[in-house]
Specification:
single chain, 76 residues, mainly beta, 4-stranded parallel sheet, 45% strand
């Protein structure tokens, strides 16, 4: 339920989908963020990309290889 993948999506080698991430806080403790990853239709996810919690990739987009898509980011 935390990863939504559209039709005709291709993943390059070594892609990681992490719908959860622990981010450091100023207090020295970490905070856990959990949110779904949404990948639209006709998307190409570049090799060795990392898609993190809450990110969205719009229909027809291509993520560059070796790119980290940060939490709650949107590629359009």
């Amino acid at each position: 339920p935390l990863v939504h993948i559209g039709d005709r999506v291709a993943f390059g080698m070594g892609v990681r989908l992490n719908p959860h991430v622990i981010a450091p806080m100023r207090s020295g403790r970490g905070a856990l963020f959990v949110a779904p990853i949404s990948i639209g239709h006709d998307v190409l996810v570049g090799g060795y990309s990392l898609l993190m919690a809450g990110c969205q990739v719009a229909d027809g987009e291509m993520t560059p290889p070796l790119r980290t898509i940060h939490p709650y980011s949107r590629l359009e």
